[in-house]
Amino acid sequence: MQFVEEIVVDEFLPTVRSMLAGKLREQGLTQSEVAEVLGISQSAVSKYAHGDVTINDRIAEDERVDALVEDLGEGLAAGDVTPVQALIEIEVLIRDLESGGDLLAQLHEEAVPELADHGSGFRVHDPESDLRTSERVLSSLRRGLRILENASGFARLIPAVGSNLVACTPDAEDVDDVAGVPGRIFDVKGQTTVPSDPEFGVSEHVATVLLAAREHGTDAAAAINIAYDPDLLAALSDAGHVTAEFDEADDVASSVGAAIEEQPEATVLYQTGGMGIEPLIYVLGTDAESVADTVRSLL
């Protein structure tokens, strides 16, 4: 049995990475720079450059794939496109190519001929696949980050400790099941700066708040911390959010749990600071995009 996601991972992504690596090298980037942009090792870039990675010719010769690689290669090299934006564009193309009768659907049917009995548009996904679940979370997080990066004025909501937008898998149990931005999101001279692509297990603090809220009954699957301001809290309340205060001077998980038990409908948690503790607001939501949209509405 083979799922369409396996074709994406085993054939589509290596082909597109190889094409992108070649395009970036044509744009004058060094192997080190290509590795940084694509989030791969220099040795992987070297393999792509020397043709040591098998590519799928049908994918490489598809006009849509070629056009996207051309656009992304130029945009990434010029700095007009961020790696997060490139990932989103590639993901959109993957979903298009998976649609009934299209390229990835054809490759899938050829890999599993029995699918022909169910119609050319039929695809088998593995709904329980850890890879699929994790990628769905990361994709949502990338879209949320893109909203924040493009939201004029968001930088002023970033606290001194930095913000982090996090999202978790449906059955999250610990911080390794929560994805966030390594190094957090910072305000650099008035510019919202996302230092790197989201990963799982990199946010301990905001992840702990989210996990504690979920453990005590909330259905939130994403969260962000922003600077505390009574006016922001009032604006969130006016928008229909239920707010709840907790004490971060104590055990965070226990304090958040107690706040949720007292206000089960809370979608905004906050603490007003203390000795060595910066006051913060935590916005919870069903996914990263909705959390980012809530924050954007405050601007």
Summary keywords:
L-fuculose-1-phosphate Aldolase; ThiN; elongated; two-stranded antiparallel ribbon; 2 domains; seven-stranded mixed β-sheet; 12 helices; 299 residues; HTH cro/C1-type domain-containing protein; 48% helix; alpha+beta; Aldolase_II/adducin_N_sf; single chain; DNA binding
Describe this structure in words.
By secondary structure, the chain is of the alpha+beta class. Helices cover 48% and strands 11% of the residues. A 7-stranded mixed β-sheet has the order 5-2-1-6-9-8-7, sandwiched between helices. A hairpin with an 8-residue loop joins strand 8 and strand 9 (280-285). The longest helix is centred in the N-terminal third of the chain and has 23 residues, at 4-26. The termini are far apart. The model has no long low-confidence stretch (mean pLDDT 88).
CATH architecture of the largest domain: 3-Layer(aba) Sandwich
| Helix amount | 40-55%
Mean pLDDT: 88
Rg, Å, rounded: 22 Å
* Strand element count: 9
Oligomer: single chain
- Number of structural domains: 2
Strand content: 5-15%
Largest sheet: 7 strands, mixed
- Class derived from helix and strand content: alpha+beta
Q: For the terminal residues, how far apart are their CA atoms?
A: 49 Å
**Outline:** elongated
Strand order of the largest sheet: 5-2-1-6-9-8-7
CATH topology of the largest domain: L-fuculose-1-phosphate Aldolase
So, the CATH homologous superfamily of the largest domain? Answer: Class II aldolase/adducin N-terminal domain
Give me the number of helical elements. Answer: 12
CATH class call of the largest domain? Alpha Beta
The ordered string of helix (H) and strand (E) elements is HHHHHHHHEEEEEHEHEHEEH
Unreliable sequence segments: none
